Amino acid sequence: MASGQQWVLVEMVQAFYEAPAYHLILEGILILWIIRLLFSKTYKLQERSDLTEKEKEELIEEWQPEPLVPPVSKDHPSLNYDVVTGPPSHKIIVNGKECINFASFNFLGLLDNERVKKQALSSLKKYGVGTCGPRGFYGTFDVHLELEDRLAKFMRTEEAIIYSYGFATIASAVPAYSKRGDIVFVDEAACFSIQKGLQASRSFIKYFKHNDMEDLERLLKEQEVEDQKNPRKARVTRRFIVVEGLYINTGDVCPLPELVKLKYKYKVRIFLEESMSFGVLGDHGRGVTEHFGVNIDDIDLISANMENALASIGGFCCGRSFVIDHQRLSGQGYCFSASLPPMLAAAAIEGLNIMEEDPDIFTVLREKCNRVHRALQGIPGLKVIGEPLTPALHLQLETSTGSRDADTKTLRAVVEYCMDRGVALTQARYLDKEEKFLPPPTIRVVVTVEQSREEIDTAASLIREAALEILK
Amino acid sequence: MSASSAAKWANGEAHHCAPNCAKPEKNAFWKNNRDCCFLDEQVHHGACNGGLYRRPFKESFEETPMLVAVFTYLGYGILTIFGYLRDFLREWKIEKCHIAREREEQKDFVPLYQDFENFYTRNLYMRIRDSWNRPICSVPGAKVDIVERVSHNYNWTFDYSGKVVKEVINMGSYNYLGFAENTGPCAEAAAEAAAKYGVGVSSTRQEMGNLSRHEELEKLVAKFLGVESAMTFGMGFATNSMNIPALAGKGCLILSDELNHASLVLGARLSGSTIRVFKHNNMQSLEKLLREAIVHGQPRTRRPWRKILILVEGIYSMEGSIVRLPEVIALKKKYKAYLYLDEAHSIGALGPWGRGVVDYFGLNPSDVDVMMGTFTKSFGAAGGYIGGKKVLIDYLRTHSHSAVYATSMSPPVVEQIITSMKCIMGEDGTTVGRERVQQLAANTSYFRRHLQDMGFIIYGNHDSPVVPLMLYMPAKIGAFGREMLQRNIAVVVVGFPATPIIESRARFCVSAAHTRAMLDMALSTISEVGDLLQLKYSRCRTVPSLDRPFDETTYEETEE
Fold it and tell me: Which residue from A308, A284, A256 is spatially nearest to A363, judged by alpha carbons?
């Protein structure tokens, strides 16, 4: 909003200089007229209506609002959640049955790591659970500062900032920079929290086809032409590309080197959401920048949550201080929310310790991902969506029946078949009406380092069996 | 002392007071709630709201003295002039500039920030930045240890001296019932959960993150609130911003209090509904908007609104005011609107049973359509909840953004909430919870009464544990924060943009964990600093009111 205002101001002053004398006189008269109008009789739009009080009362009496919420049918596919009793770790009890977990994003198995638990407990003994305040008002704990410092060092950036909720991280970060009038280029497959961040920013949003750099360049060129028409406006219109490192919805990696090239060619900033790739890609788990060997300083902002690989709660943004520090006053989810419980921050620090001490864990994870990807190939009726290196794959119906409900039901049957026989899977859930580009219904298969070869093979053959049984 | 008995008791109260207040004329009486004097006001409310309120609804916002206002503006004027001067000096490299710079490679990009956008931060906030973000290194309880910071470059950067300021009286944390503890049943339960479950969940509620403990918590919350069903979420802010869009959409109207929290504003904006703002806690303004909305329908198309949702908070965290809930409910019923009540600060902290503002006014929870609140404050945990009719919660379970896309609540946090909530309800077999609720009420009235008697301008409701003390002038924001910390008391100071530009204030949050000695210590220090900084602005010193028997006995009258 601010940028727009300033631009208008500049233009006004310029127009003032260029205007001929009669124009100025006319405008002067108009201004006087406006002042007269302001000070004469005030009248309101609403009061012009010639309704009598009685008619108004009748209108009020007659008005019937819709119910607050429409009723939900009892067999709505997502009304009855699967219930997990006990810890949601490698061995998980779902709806009373013990299963091997192929559904939680606990990629590195840190969720039930004894060291992590121990640190969390000792933090709990020192600080209690809640923080009872936002970061500004005595909600900043020394652990938060340590975690921010550690994350920045781990990612090799200047600064990091933590949020108390993974979803709120990118959703707050985007509107902190991109305002009304700015332009954001975003991948069609972008996850829901990015979409919400964009909506909150009120910027112009231009979607490009998933991972299609030509399409992106086409949009950037279009914008360039647009800019030439109105260079003054272009000077204050910020542009951003928002992409995910590893897409949660499609399981593939963004072409980061090409994006960086486009960034410098068209002078657009890149925001990268790495919730899936942080602690997964790269030799040290630094994510997609390390995976491609891209200089992390070329990325303006990286955001990730600590809820997947780190198996804690919350999220963080990292990058140069010039960029990140701004969020400390402008990130809504940072300023206006209670800070992260210190025990969760302590758990994340210990998670980082483990990741730093033993980078082999990422190689192990990659091998397992490959193995799962291979094992799931060629299942009749189901195709694998996602690259071999992704730890969160999708299984999609090869041929859709055309009805989303029917497809969902079929996939649910597959999931239940597997769950009955000791493999916990889940369907990828979306809000059908809210998603900008709704992905097709799929089953999520999540790989973790804790899954043994045998377990992977069992799971794959079980899914195959289920597909043969149900998809016939 | 179960929830049902509380609800029943609340029911009875609600019945004979609701029909009275449907008359719009009644609202005219209390229009000047920004009146000057307390004495004056007591008469006002005692007389006209007797039918609506069980106890006098005393709320005051003493007018800013003219001279103070002038000096405040003058202060900002001087700061602005100096800001420009120093920006000029920085531009010409006469003054050393500490601001992080854009990297060379990106100098020709469109600037990420507009220059004037950060003028306020650079030139005003930076001077007094040390009053915020003070790191602590202990439980945020009644006393807190603060990590000492020093700045050698006027707050541009901080160094940690390695020293800790021990045992500072904490008047800043939202620890209303004192459940921020590292020992005791809550911490033990949380520790047990952390050892058993780990701290994360790594999945969403709809996928693989729906633990049985989450469901148990939700049942307990529903019972606590006296509603049919409830759902919990991992972050209080997100509870608002991610659920309001599920409740309202295009063609709906949201009527929002002007002082609503950023999360409510964001939620309303994300919903895509039309938003109209009514004056803070002003029922005439609300009624006017309601009437106009229904009579005129949607702008341009003139279609009737699909539904109207009123967003209010229980206690407003910057004003210390309590929502006029009985009147809001009457209006909502009269105009068939829906009511969304955010009890972030009031749950646990108000009402004889600690059930929030509905309990405080003795109303029926079913009259509020959406009961929202957070666990961060009174429960010493994190997260938020929504309670209401079963059909509402079922809808949220299937349509809440949070349930589908956000990781579910951490198990030790869940356990902390369950244990603290059971304690408040008395289900742990002790009266500790109830005593804390009473202690908080007693502490609140003690603290507020004494501050008023000292001659400070105190905003808000007499029963609100959020106590804003007006500072007005920008220089006094930093001075008050620093002087108080030097005297070992941690306070929150707030200025623009969290408050209107001239209404900078300090805010105290009273806790049940504060002992009388701590409060006395805090009060005498505040008085001392108040004299030093000349903060005793109030022009209507009231004699300590006799009609208000204090403290422990305050809530006795409610038991029949």
Answer: A284
Q: Is A404 left (phi over 0), alpha (psi -120 to 50) or beta?
A: alpha
**Per-residue DSSP letter, A315:** E
Cβ–Cβ contact B336 with A under 8 A: yes
d(CA B368, CA B341): 7
The reply to whether residue A192 touches residue B404, judged by beta carbons under 8 angstroms, is yes
Contacts of B525 (CB under 8 A, 6+ apart): B484, B487, B488, B489
Residue B247 in contact with partner chain A when CB distance is under 8 A:
yes
Model pLDDT for residues B381-427, shown as the tens digit of each residue:
999 999 999 999 999 999 999 999 999 999 999 999 999 999 999 99
Q: How far is B188 from chain A (nearest CA, A)?
A: 9
Using CA atoms, how far residue A198 sits from A185, A202, A299, in Å, is: 10, 7, 18
Q: What are B99-121's pLDDT values in tens digits?
A: 778 888 888 999 998 876 688 88
User: What count of residues does chain A have?
Assistant: 472
For residue B328, the one-letter residue type is V
Label the pairing between strands A426-427 and B143-150. unpaired
Can you tell me the distance from the alpha carbon of A383 to that of A411, in angstroms, rounded to the nearest whole number? 12
Cα–chain-centroid distance for residue A464? 32
Phi/psi for B337 (5° steps) reads -90, 170
pLDDT at residue B19 greater than cutoff 70:
no
What mean pLDDT do residues A187-198 have?
A: 95
Render B22-47 in DSSP notation, one character per residue. G-GGGGGGG--TT-S-HHHHHHHHHH
Mutate to test the interface with B, among A48, A50, A69, A95 (most CBs of B within 10 A): A69
Phi-psi region of B534 (alpha: psi -120 to 50; beta: other; left: phi over 0): left
Q: Which two tokens stand for residue A147?
A: 């975690």
Question: String of b and e for B355-394 (b: at least 16 CB within 10 Å)?
Answer: bbbbbbbbbbbbbbbbbbbbbbbbbbbbbbbbbbbebbbb
Q: Read off the tokens for B466.
A: 């959020």
- With tokens 């209303």, the residue in question is B176
Helices (H), A376-433: 404-420
User: What pLDDT does residue B100 have?
Assistant: 79
Spatial separation of the C-alpha atoms in residues B312 and B322, rounded to whole Å: 10
Query: What does chain B come to in residues?
Result: 560
Q: Does B117 touch chain A (CB under 8 A)?
A: yes
Q: What percent of chain B has pLDDT over 70?
A: 87
Return the DSSP state at A138: I
pLDDT at A285 over 90: yes
Give CA separation, A39 vs A36, B309, B344, in Å.
5, 35, 43
**Distance between CA A428 and CA B206 in Å, rounded?**
9
Tell me: pLDDT of A104 over 80.
Answer: yes
Write the ipTM: 0.88
Q: Does the CB of B481 have a partner CB in chain A at under 8 Å?
A: no
Whole-number average pLDDT of chain B:
86
Q: What is the mean pLDDT of residues B270-281?
A: 95
Helix, strand, or coil (residue B452): helix
Q: Does A430 touch chain B (CB under 8 A)?
A: yes
Of B182, B205, B209, the CB nearest to A124: B182
Query: In the sheet that A423-424 helps form, which strands lie side by side, from edge to edge?
Result: A84-85, A91-94, A97-101, A423-424
pLDDT of residue B91: 84
Beta bridge partners of B345: none
Confidence (pLDDT) at B553: 38
